[in-house]
Amino acid sequence: MTPLSIFLENLDMDASTRTIVTLLAIFAITWFAWTRVKSKKGSSSLPPGPRGLPLIGNLPSLGPDLHTYFAGLARTYGPILKLQLGSKLAIIVSSPDLAREVLKDHDVTFANRDVPAVARIATYGGLDIAWSPYGPEWRMLRKVCVLKMLSNSTLDSVYGLRRREVQNTVAYIYRKAGLPINVEEQTFLTILNVITSMLWGGTVQGEERGRLGAEFRRVVADMTELLGAPNISDFFPALARFDLQGLARKMSGLAPRFDQIFDRMIEKQLNFDELGDSSRECKDFLQFLLRVKDEGDAKTPLTMTHIKALLMDMVVGGTDSTSNAIEFAIAEVMNKPEVMRKAQDELDNVVGKDNIVEESHIYKLQYVHAIMKETLRLHPVVPMLIPHCPSGTCTIGGYSVPKGSRIFINVWAVHRDPSIWENPMEFKPESKFDYSGSEKVDLTEKFGIVLKLKNPLVATPTPRLSNPALYRTPYVSTIHHSRIPNNNVSLLHFLAPENTEMLNTVVAGLWSRWWDASNEREKLFRTVLIMAVAMITVFWFLWNNIKPKKAVAAPSPPGPRGLPLVGYLPFLGYDLHKKFTELAGVYGPIYKLRLGNKLCVVVSSPPLAKEIVRDKDTIFANRDPPTSALVFTYGGNDIAWSSYGPPWTKMRKIFVREMLSNASLDASYELRKQEVKKAIRDVYNKIGSPVDFGELAYVTSINAVLRILLGGGTIQGEKWTDFVAQFRSHAAEMMVLLGKPNVSDLFPVLARFDLQGIEKKAKRLAVTIDQFLQYAIEQRLNEEKTHMDDRKDFLQILLDLSKHEDPATSITMDQVKAILMDIFLGGTDTTTTMIEWTMARLMQHQEVRQKVYQELQEVVGSNNVVEEFHLPKLRYLSAVIKETFRLHPALPLLVPRFSRQSCMVGGYIVPKGTTVLLNVYAIHRDPDLWDNPLEFRPERFLNGDTAGSFDYSGNNFQYLPFGSGRRVCAGIPLAEKMLMLLQASLLHSFEWKLPAGGVLELSDRYGIVIKKMEPLMVIPSPRLCNLELY
Prior knowledge:
Elements: H1 3-9, H2 15-40, H3 66-77, E1 80-85, E2 88-93, H4 96-105, E3 112-113, H5 117-122, H6 136-149, H7 152-157, H8 159-175, E4 181-182, H9 183-200, H10 206-227, H11 232-235, H12 247-277, H13 285-294, H14 304-318, H15 320-335, H16 337-350, H17 359-362, H18 366-378, E5 388-389, E6 394-396, E7 399-401, E8 406-409, H19 411-415, E9 445-446, E10 452-453, E11 458-459, H20 497-514, H21 520-546, H22 576-587, E12 590-595, E13 598-603, H23 606-615, H24 627-632, H25 646-659, H26 662-667, H27 669-684, E14 691-692, H28 693-710, H29 717-739, H30 743-746, H31 758-786, H32 794-802, H33 813-844, H34 846-859, H35 875-887, E15 897-898, E16 903-905, E17 908-910, E18 915-918, H36 920-924, H37 972-989, E19 990-993, E20 1004-1005, E21 1011-1012, E22 1017-1022
Parallel strand pairs: 2-8, 13-18
Antiparallel strand pairs: 1-2, 3-5, 4-11, 6-7, 9-10, 12-13, 14-22, 15-18, 16-17, 19-22, 20-21
């Protein structure tokens, strides 16, 4: 016997292994048979497209934004391509010529729809205009809707209803003048109010209309959510009877609620007619449809079910699409101040500031009309239109389109095609206009049942009309203002444990029958067959993934290859800044690394850094917070880690304008000065003995920062000493956890297991630190009750802001604590490390140290102590500290940025969700940018034409110690004052020398900040003549 037969005869698999092998075999056989059948039917004439997996096709590779994904595929495969989505064949068309073939030349063939399961339930079996099959019934419905219900005369008759709701909205926004409003929410509410008013505004009046509107809105929100959810039953119709995700069941429970509302309204109107009021003029769509029903054609009558389906079309088709188009238009106009001014000028000319807009004005507002057209070009509300379904096989663009395919027309791609439109990505309502904008509005899109803004537009209105009476309205809004819940439904929800129990039972039964063989020979044959099928499946998968891919227009950055699963992690080493600099020498100024399942892009040149932090700042303005950082900052509720958006903008504005203003820093100067004096006194007591300079700087910095944060009066005496000592101990443990590599950050799928226990330790420590902060806050609040003073430390400023009623300036108590943590973390280790590095460099370069001493003697003198008003005059010491930051940036890779969407940087594509690292360590030591870059030479920041451009704000991309752009370090003013005051005071008060036989070590070690490998031990001796100054 051969070794293989011996192995197979003795093969003993458990139930789980057998189940897996069986499923693989079934998948492989089904896929093989399916592809063979397709090839016999002449699949070569089908459009090109990417290969998919057996059974499920291209479903796993779709991603959330279908319109951009399909546009990307069109660049690779051409203007017509195919995708296998489950058992459905999808054809995507992305050019005007092919769109014309589908919509005009072969209009009748493609006039049908492929109705989703939930839409069929919602529209009474597809009895509406959107989903009903092409034929006499559909033509009758369209005729009723277009020629009668939406005729000019009918729309004019319900104008008063539309006008009433628009005036309600204007009045509501006027009451909110000066406050941010959610434009998406407000437009949705307005449109829904308008539509419900036109549906039955003349039938239902007063409080009943308000109650009905509120109920209706809740049902609309639930239905919109279900219609937008991907449904496995639509991709695999054979599984529709099982309703694996339960969407059909949910819609079946929701549809009767709609039906009950419609029945109540219809019954109410019929009661009016019975009372002899049927001759009155139609005041809403419901009255009109009921009259058309009574006068209808006997051959194709309009039934009551048709009326309900048409009303449903009006609600679903008229709310989200209209409100999102308006939101996109406002967002684009806010990005173009010139366009806004032109629109407002046109409104002033046509309407005037003493009138409100009437429908009679609309036809004269040509520029506003052009704005809406341009908005719909860039942001079509239904970017793929409603899919068409051919009633027969036909040829499009030279390719065969089979009967029953699902046809998507990607109008989003057509509208942005550079071969059709000049500068297609630019918002231009007219042919040309000049533009110079200020702050940009984020126009990132989110795919769904309609195209939406990914981040809701929040804008602050200010009145423009001169007559305040025009903002007042006697009407009451139909619906109260509240936020619609936004819940995403996963396509793979059907794989949840409760849904797979039946699958396990079926597979187990089939498996037991398969292995119920009459003899060992037959059992061996079945084993060989299963293994062969499994091997074929594996080989197919490997071939499909290893084969050369077609070239794409935008390549990824180069980079080293990594290992499966772990990527490049095993090769990183300890000093990331040096390793990344070394890799930049091999792969260039931009390259990629796969670290676990995170894609990282490392940038090491000023032009590319400028692209990220300035040119595409909003795209890269987010963070990818580590697990431990989220714990310590109350869920990323701070400035350092929170996502870019209105909350972050508000916190940063508060931080910069309130806490770090010149007035606030001047008010807290005495607190800083006290701690520096204590440090001088402590050093004086250790004259002649070695001092750990880094420890000295750390203790002084942490004491000073806590004093600035919490003030001098809140906690006194021994309580303050104990408080600082304990807080310092916990802070040291916190810095260790923040700097520790965490497998949960590199493999988010494993985060729930917390394999290293870092999250558990962080949570336990965060509770302790929160108790300390809460104690300080309570002490301050109790102090306020007994007596008031004019103390303005940072805690008092934040507590005052937390009491504001204005949401534009108020903050929560969690945000108070998170901001305190930001200042503490950012103001201790960074300052400490840089003071130690500066002193180390001064000990290495005696001539530089003597120049610093000479400058201190001239500016301060030997009979004074250093004060903050001396600091701007210490130009050479400032240059010394800048040179230290150049050679030893505290954060050599800065805080990582996170791309919120895919974009081009340096000619390479940086995908959405990439972690971007700026290697300022490499930029600061680049010989192409700096003369003798490894030499410590402070004069480079004093001499030369560009010396004055090197500041800490990141305006010169050759020098970025604190970053640049929106996410530049917000605490620069405080850090600069603290660092300069402590450094100057220690140098001015003492001479420093190395211990006998001591060796100056300048090696560094990578961590949350770059520190010296070995502590700097130095011996102080007094410099000042007047010993009382100590």
